[in-house]
Amino acid sequence: MGGAIGAERAGLPASGGVAAVIEALSEPFGARLSTGRALREQHANTITWLANEPPDAVVFVEDTAEVQQVVRACAAHGVPVIAFGTGTSLEGQVNAPKGGICIDLSRMNRVLAVHAEDLDCVVEPGVTRKQLNEHLRDLGLFFPIDPGADASLGGMASTRASGTNAVRYGTMKDNVVALTAVLANGEVITTARRAKKSSAGYDLTRLFVGAEGTLGIITSLTLRLSGLPEAISGGVCPFPTIRSACDAVIMTIQSGLPVARIELLDEVQVRACNAYSKLDLPEQPLLFLEFHGTEAGVHEQAERFGEIAAEFGGGPFTWTARPEERTRLWQARHDAYWACLPLKPGAKALATDVCVPLSRLADCVDETKRDIEEMGMLAPIVGHVGDGNFHTVTLVDMDDPQDVAKAKIFIERMVHRSLAMGGTATGEHGVGQGKKKYLEAEHGRETLDAMRAIKAALDPQNIMNPGKILP
Ligand SMILES: Cc1cc2nc3c(=O)[nH]c(=O)nc-3n(C[C@H](O)[C@H](O)[C@H](O)COP(=O)(O)OP(=O)(O)OC[C@H]3O[C@@H](n4cnc5c(N)ncnc54)[C@H](O)[C@@H]3O)c2cc1C
Q1: Within a domain: residue 362?
Q2: Do 272 and 306 belong to one domain?
Q3: What is the pLDDT of residues 363-395, one digit of tens each?
């Protein structure tokens, strides 16, 4: 833990099957294959408290045929293959606990086609969401899924990412129409056509979305696009308590108000954002909101939300349609994770998320907040609450075993609280290594066995990102 090198073999030269694979790939890939330690460490988990477990080599691929070449070489020797997008995942997804070859997909970053008339596009997996939106801007279209980080679309699909816009536009599950993937045996499959609907066979697209690279390597994605809204307005609304803020969220969603974003920050997170982003927001529980629609529509939505907030003691709801003010606010929201770090200098920040049915949101957030206070933790709460999804950023002194033990207990309790309320161990960050231990409690043994059977059928040697998702 603490970002130390986890695998003992981290500094040792590769041997056995791995050495054979590296030798086989050295000539065709040349300088695009590296065994340098710094690069390998950069390609393993870096962001949270899980140990850094580097692969034996990193290879930068440029097309599907090269992915096939690497996978076939690894399959021939039973060597693990770990896909890498931008490495922003939070649960140890890109670690290589058994060593192996990391396939870096960042050079597969071409937008292959935009079908504006069909509201879809085809991209390589290394295209990032900001890059895609730059590409689309002049067409009046955008790709709405926004996890904050400028993540790759292959990585976002693989973690079933969502973020601030999901309450209106859905998650990656709703916005990946089809994908092409290289399987563990080196074969290439395409999971669907571009039609908006299809009842033709098993839904392999959904199977790969959220598979975290454990079933194959995605080499292209067909994505659903949305039209840029004619008007956008946004603002901030303070509440006397975190429960009243959540109650207002529940009422907003239940009353069918089509909010594009509705984000909760507790007072600790607001304080952190004020200091980090040089804002002067009221230091109490806040909702950040955004509305998309026509000029008249966003005006009406904002007014209606103000009325709902007032019913729960919230307000005043101050909102604006001016882009520069909105951008400043949402940049602060996106920087929320980094804003937490100065609250406890030297601490690690553990971002963890759960998601409950909307009607249980206020209970789950309120109980979690009480737990934080009773346990004496520093753990700001921030969340995509319109989906019943929220995060805590637990600040942990990794040199203090008591602090680490307390954080573990806190996270376990948060997950079990969510499960007891009909929720999930993770709404959007995925399972990786960190949340594996909760899967049986969430799904039950029989369902896990069905997942294992799928994994065994598609990857009988268990070379695709081993040690992730399935306990
Ligand atoms: C500050 C911060 C805030 C965040 N906020 C959010 C948020 O609001 N919502 C949210 O959903 N996430 C959030 N995340 C998490 C992260 O951004 C997402 O998980 C993102 O989807 C990861 O994309 P990536 O390109 O970095 O993937 P990586 O981290 O590189 O990879 C993630 C997983 O996908 C696999 N993978 C990558 N590419 C492929 C491929 N082409 N084929 C098959 N498997 C592949 C990897 O093997 C790994 O298992 C946040 C992260 C940070 C650091």
Answers
A1: yes
A2: yes
A3: 999 999 999 999 999 999 999 999 999 999 999
pLDDT in tens, 246-271: 999 999 999 999 999 999 999 999 99
Here the CATH number for the domain that contains residue 268 is: 3.30.70.3450
Does 314 lie in the same domain as 264? yes
Which ligand 1 atom minimizes the distance to the CA of 337? 1
Average pLDDT over residues 346-355: 94
Chain centroid to CA 8: how far? 29
| Contacts for 71 with CB less than 8 Å, ≥ 6 apart | 81, 103, 182, 183, 184, 185, 186, 217
What's the pLDDT at 8? 41
Q: Is residue 207 part of a domain?
A: yes
Sheet holding 259-265, edge to edge: 318-320, 231-238, 286-293, 259-265, 381-384, 389-396, 348-355
For 119, the token pair is: 């509201």
pLDDT for 16: 82
* Pairing label, strands 120-123, 259-265: unpaired
Question: Which of 93, 145, 158, 337 for a ligand 1 pocket mutation test, highest count of atoms within 8 Å of Cβ?
Answer: 158
Pocket residues: Cβ below 6 A from ligand 1: 47, 82-90, 93-94, 105, 125, 147-149, 151-152, 154-156, 158-159, 161-163, 212-213, 217-218, 337, 428-429, 465
From the list 260, 206, 201, 211, the residue with the least C-alpha distance to 233 is: 260
- The rounded Cα 138 to chain-centroid distance in angstroms is 27
Whether 351 and 418 map to the same domain: the answer is yes
94 and 126, same domain (yes or no) = no
Verify that 143 and 155 share a domain, yes or no: yes
Q: Are residues 116 and 222 in the same domain?
A: yes
**Any idea what the CATH number is for the domain that residue 163 is in?**
3.30.465.10
Domain of 346, in residue numbers: 339-432
Distance (Å, whole) CA 198 – CA 277: 46
Domain assignment present for 7: no
Mean pLDDT of 211-236: 97
- In this prediction, residue 321 carries a pLDDT of 86
- Cα gap 289→5, rounded to integer Å: 41
DSSP conformation letters of 39-52: HHHHTS--SSSSPB
Torsion sign (Cα): 448, 451, 457, 463: negative
Give the model confidence (pLDDT) of 429-448 as tens digits: 999 999 999 999 999 999 99
Residue ending a domain, among 280, 295, 325, is 325
Please determine, for residue 426, whether its predicted confidence score (pLDDT) is greater than 60.
yes
- Domains contained in the chain, number: 4
CA-125 nearest atom, ligand 1: 41
Asked if residues 279 and 335 have their Cβ atoms less than 8 Å apart, the reply is no
